[in-house]
Design brief:
Layout (H helix, E strand, L loop, with lengths): L5 H56 L2 H8 L7 H29 L6 H8 L7 H9 L3 H25 L4 H10 L2 H9 L9 H25 L2 H12 L3 H31 L7 H26 L2 H6 L7 H13 L2 H8 L1 H9 L3 H25 L4 H4 L2 H16 L14
Helix pairs in contact: 1-3, 1-4, 1-6, 1-11, 3-4, 4-7, 6-8, 9-17, 10-17, 11-14, 11-15, 11-16, 12-14, 12-15, 12-19, 15-19, 16-19, 17-19
Length: 421
């Protein structure tokens, strides 16, 4: 099978990232508005709920996003495949939303966040990830752009409502953010191919096979995001003051949003990666190094500017010298995680294409455990090392993933999984 050129892979990744730039810009504007309207304390609570939402988004995905692009690329135009995958992902999203509501009642009620957290959970039902896979898998770039623009436009309208009516209540903010993806969700739903209904027995067997195949993906994704609760705990322990926590979360938000671009480039690699393809050791190193240098050029200015970037983007916060010091330290260290993630993108995509799911799960689990251990140690002994501790898992995962990729020889040839036969 002919391999796509590195330039084409980069081009698709740049294109996927470019259509997200507008939404990310709007997201920063809205977060800046929220930081000014809610104040440091409520803004920190909002970021806490947003972290809960991200964790349950992993549960809602359950690894099926990676599986769809790795196993079903080129077949999503078939009504049976597309509709069954959608029902599966929507069912997972509904289960994750119910679990998040229960979690907020059990663990956030003491902070008065149970109800706004439940409102936030509604966003899982119409999350863009529930339907975005269809446009990526079919390479329908035109409708993907429209889908992104609809989502961005609705988000802008929500921000305008917040600014016009002066919403400073956390409940109203969470409900507005949760409902923002709904029009884009309906836009994508109307474009799924329609076909004859399938028998329930066949659908259940199909779903069982897909979910069983997705389990290693889900475990891998959960392990890779294990640092989220750990870093929340570490930050709360190291900086009990609202101002310092808000400053760190502002810097972390910037780096986390940059990770969305890494995910877009990973999607590009998955679209073109096929089982058994082997560009050779030199080609593998060239691709990994190319991605690393590309990302380094992008994040180096952020590291050099330090706290000035979050102070500019989150100008709605009332910055103090203590907040600037915390943010400056985070911004000079955390962007290195983006370079590490980009460096392992080609290796990760090929591991997934080669169905080496268990190996990938073990690597990401090792990185996640190292992250948790390093963050706990830093929080208890040297809080100033928290940003560096957050890089430990990325460094280990990158070394192991690229090492496994370099040692891997080409498989016997492309093969379809049994579930697609």
């Amino acid at each position: 099978m002919k391999q796509a050129s590195f330039r084409k892979r980069i081009g698709v990744g740049v294109g996927l990232s470019a259509i997200s730039v507008l939404f990310q810009f709007l997201s920063f504007c809205v977060n800046n508005l929220l930081g000014h309207a809610l104040g440091p304390g409520a803004f920190a609570d909002y970021n806490l709920l947003n972290a809960d939402f991200l964790l349950f988004s992993i549960a809602a995905d359950f690894g099926t996003g990676a599986l769809v692009l790795s196993f079903f690329a080129g077949r999503l135009h078939l009504p049976y495949i597309a509709r069954t995958v959608f029902r599966m992902r929507f069912g997972l999203a509904a289960a994750a939303a119910a679990a998040m509501v229960l979690f907020e009642q059990l663990f956030r009620a003491g902070q008065g966040l149970a109800f706004p957290g439940a409102l936030f959970a509604l966003g899982l039902l119409c999350s863009p990830g529930t339907v975005e896979w269809f446009f990526l898998g079919t390479r329908d770039w035109r409708n993907l752009v429209r889908f992104k623009l609809v989502h961005a436009g609705t988000y802008l309208l929500g921000a305008a409502a917040l600014a016009t009516f002066g919403f400073s209540d956390l409940d109203a903010v969470c409900l507005t953010v949760a409902c923002a993806p709904l029009p884009a969700f309906l836009f994508a739903l109307r474009r799924l191919p329609r076909g004859k209904p399938v028998r329930r027995g066949s659908a259940r067997r199909f779903l069982a096979v897909v979910l069983r195949a997705a389990c290693p993906y889900a475990l891998s994704a959960a392990a890779s995001f294990a640092y989220l609760p750990a870093i929340l705990w570490a930050v709360n322990l190291a900086w009990p003051g609202d101002e310092e926590r808000a400053a760190f979360f502002a810097s972390h938000k910037i780096v986390f949003l940059l990770q969305t671009f890494a995910l877009q480039f990973l999607a590009s690699e998955q679209i073109f990666s096929r089982r058994g393809l082997d560009p050779g050791a030199a080609g593998k190193l060239k691709r990994c190094a190319g991605y690393a240098l590309l990302s380094l050029a992008g994040v180096l200015p952020l590291a050099l500017l330090g706290s000035w970037t979050p102070r500019l983007l989150f100008f709605g916060l009332d910055w103090t010298p203590e907040m600037a010091a915390v943010s400056d330290q985070a911004m000079r260290v955390l962007p290195a995680s983006i370079v590490l993630q980009f460096a392992r993108l080609p290796a990760l995509a090929q591991l997934l294409a080669d169905r080496r799911i268990v190996l990938n799960a073990l690597i990401t689990a090792a990185g996640g455990l190292l992250n948790v251990g390093a963050l706990v140690l830093a929080a208890r002994t040297a809080p100033e090392w928290i940003p560096v501790a957050g890089l430990s898992g990325d460094l280990l995962a990158t070394a192991l993933t690229v090492g496994a990729h370099l040692r891997r020889r080409a498989a016997d040839g492309p093969a379809s999984p049994q579930m697609l036969s």
